[in-house]
Structure formats: C-alpha cells, structure tokens
Write a sequence for this structure.
C-alpha cells in the first residue's frame, strides 16, 4: 500500500511541473521572442527573396554591384505577420576594404535608395511565388552591424598602411 501511495505522490508532483522549462516570452536581452509562425514565415520569405533576387538579377543589373547581387542576411517578421524586414548587405565577394568609409557609406545609401524605389519588383516576384496566401509587405533594411564591421576593417587597413608608410 505504501508503494502505491509513493508512486501516486510521485506522479502528482511530476504533473505539477511545467512541461517546458524556462520557456519565457522574452530573450536574455529583454526582446520578445518570435513565435513559431514568425520563424516559419521568415524562412519562407527569405527563400523567396533569394530566388527573386537571383532571377531578377539574371535579367537586370538593378540590385547588382560590379556584377554581384546584394546579400540577404535574414528576414524578421512582425507579430501580426503583415510586415517583413529584409536585412541586406553589400556582396561579400567584393573587395570593399579598398574603399574609403565615406565612399562605402555612399554605396550603401545609394543601394538603399534603389531598394526603396525599385524593391517593389522583388516584392511582386515574392508575392507571385507565395500566392497561396497573403505574404507580408517587404521593407529593405541595410544590416548595420555589417556596415560597421566593414568601416572598422577599412579603418584598420588605413591604420596599417599609414604605419607602414611612416617606417
């Protein structure tokens, strides 16, 4: 009888514990975590944007820099699944270290302007590929951390060249 009682108490104590441990709504930085639907939608949109950029750039050079298509780093979806931020950076295969930071900033600003003005072409291709439902509206955002990393790399290279010239 005591064994049955002990097993019953053990079962009761285990059912009172949460099924998923430490599953909070916020991450370690205090930002709200994305839902499963947001993560799935972001993956669908990112794949469609990659395909759309590749097919559009094969015919036109609007989103190219020296023949290389801009890189899409990721997509972030709003909680209501109606807006999407597409984070982009300049093509990584280009040697951007030789550009001055002001020139690099001008290139990023010019591409952002082109994306703001003509990004609707990519949005149209994405919407036609995902026409089974209403896909979110795309907003193009230059990935700031990549721009900062490039500026730092350019500054380091300039510092190395100046120190080598002084020797």
């Amino acid at each position: 009888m005591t064994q049955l009682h002990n097993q019953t108490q053990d079962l009761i104590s285990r059912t009172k514990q949460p099924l998923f441990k430490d599953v909070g709504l916020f991450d370690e930085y205090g930002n709200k975590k994305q839902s499963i639907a947001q993560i799935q939608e972001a993956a669908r949109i990112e794949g469609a944007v990659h395909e759309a950029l590749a097919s559009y750039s094969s015919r036109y050079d609007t989103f190219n820099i020296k023949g290389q298509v801009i890189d899409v780093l990721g997509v972030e979806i709003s909680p209501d699944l109606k807006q999407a931020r597409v984070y982009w950076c300049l093509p990584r295969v280009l040697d951007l270290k030789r550009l001055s930071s002001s020139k690099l900033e001008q290139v990023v600003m010019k591409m952002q302007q082109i994306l703001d003005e003509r990004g609707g072409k990519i949005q149209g291709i994405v919407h036609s590929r995902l026409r089974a439902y209403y896909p979110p509206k795309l907003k193009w955002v230059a990935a700031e951390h990549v721009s900062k990393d490039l500026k730092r790399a350019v500054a380091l290279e300039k510092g190395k060249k100046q120190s080598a010239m002084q020797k």
Observations:
- The two ends are 89 Å apart (CA to CA).
- The longest helix spans residues 101-129.
